[in-house]
Amino acid sequence: MASRTRKSERRTEALTRERILEAAVELLDATGEGGLTFRALTERLVTGPGAIYWHVANKGELLDAATDTVVAAALAIEPAESADSPQGEIRAVALGLFDAIDEHPWLAAQLATQLSRSPWGAVAPRILESIGRQVRALGVPEGSQFTATSALMHYILGAAGQNAANGRVLGPGVDRSEFLDATSRAWKELDPDDFPFTRAVADQMRAHDDQAEFLAGIDLILAGITAVHPPTT
Amino acid sequence: MASRTRKSERRTEALTRERILEAAVELLDATGEGGLTFRALTERLVTGPGAIYWHVANKGELLDAATDTVVAAALAIEPAESADSPQGEIRAVALGLFDAIDEHPWLAAQLATQLSRSPWGAVAPRILESIGRQVRALGVPEGSQFTATSALMHYILGAAGQNAANGRVLGPGVDRSEFLDATSRAWKELDPDDFPFTRAVADQMRAHDDQAEFLAGIDLILAGITAVHPPTT
DNA sequence: ACCTGAACACCGTTCAAGT
DNA sequence: ACCTGAACACCGTTCAAGT
Q1: Which nt sits closest to A61, CA to C1'?
Q2: More confident residue, B161 or B143
Q3: Which residues are in the HTH tetR-type domain (chains A, B) (predicted)?
């Protein structure tokens, strides 16, 4: 009982909103959407639920804040390969979000929920801003900048959301090509009358590379923007 | 007690998976995501939870099936203005999904959740098929059909998801222009250094029309497809 | 001002028992 | 084969009480 002076490591270094958010993100990353509970959170933070409610209004706010934090971090990353063209910058922003959703798969569903709850809340302006600056640099006339930027943002959110799953479906046992194979086979067994197209592209889907496909979509939209708003060289 | 022959209207007409799905969709439409509980469902169907579990594996399957039903119905609608061009058909398909999400706002988040759980489950092939046929008709070379179709699908899911909120945020008291006004004002008060673009487009966002904006995005992607894969006239 | 922790209402799911 | 309904484990949230 003499060596009690040290106590057992650090315990409380005061509970802050930041520490709570940090723990929430860790919990979400480790255990998925269902893993974030107030019980798990109190255990990890060594407190009671009341303490958390002192810093955070409710679970919804907690999720929103966690989402915002992660998105902000993803957009803050300066692309290593400093793309010099606006197109390159847009690709970099898109890939940043793509990777963030890949690292934090819960982001996909959470972004959708949040955007559909408060469409222009905190997250949307962040993404809009990152892309919009480049759209402007592309020479898109002022009156069309919002439309072009929104289109890119919506594509990114839709595509990244679905692609996030690829990293998640593949549990410990399943590997990627095995999964794609199975899906491809399933598509080929669809009703020929109802699903001729899907059957026909089953092989393309099997061979596809998530990130390359994602960027090809970005490039398609960029090509559309350039076609509709040709740069006044 | 003599007039008991009639009984009190219909009571049980046997519980089927279809009746359960129907009730689930009604409940979701009426009370939102949080409103679908097994208690509410048993009350509406006048049974116990066990009866529902006999027809449905669990709540997740119930939600997936409800989503699939609604999406299938939305895609089955033949556009009244029978668009003759592939572009017109694609716009019609897109608008069908847009409207479905508008009518069933819970669809947005549910689609995202479902797609991020099983990316190529039941819903994705349906959408892929509807759009893909038209992409093919557009003359896109075979090797690029999957990419072009996916891009359209992802944009639609992303955009419709966010736009769904507009119909939902507006409760009884709030009207649309009031809401856009408030958002627009909020954007103009963002930090000028961090959000120059968002501040600049605040007025465009305020004046924008959801459906027109949505279709403008579709057209942008269609323009991109045409630019990258010019029709071999 | 910040934290504790028992208590409450509610949820998804199970399962022995009925028909 | 299909349904009943009590029971279980778990969840978000509250709040009187402490410091």
Answers
A1: D12
A2: B143
A3: 14-74
Question: Residue A175: what pLDDT?
Answer: 78
Which residue of chain B has the CA closest to A216? B147
- Confidence band for B169, pLDDT divided at 50, 70 and 90: low
Q: How far apart are CA A136 and CA B218, in angstroms?
A: 20
Contacts of B226 in chain A (CB under 8 A): 227
For chain A residues 14-73, those near strand C by a CB cutoff of 7 A are 14-15, 46-51, 53-55
Nucleotides of D under 7 A from a protein CB: 2-7, 10-17
Rg of chain B (C-alpha set): 22
Name the residue ranges covered by the structural domains of chain A.
83-228
Of the pLDDT bands very low, low, confident and very high (cuts 50, 70, 90), residue A135 is very high
Per-residue pLDDT band for A170 (boundaries 50, 70, 90) equals low
Q: Which two tokens stand for residue B71?
A: 């999406």
Q: Quick check: B93 pLDDT over 50?
A: yes
Instruction: State residue B47's pLDDT score.
Output: 96
Q: Which CATH superfamily is domain A83-228 in?
A: Tetracycline Repressor, domain 2 (1.10.357.10)
**Residue from the list B155, B194, B196 with its beta carbon closest to the beta carbon of A151:** B155
Q: Which residue on chain A is closest to B117 by alpha carbon? A: A165
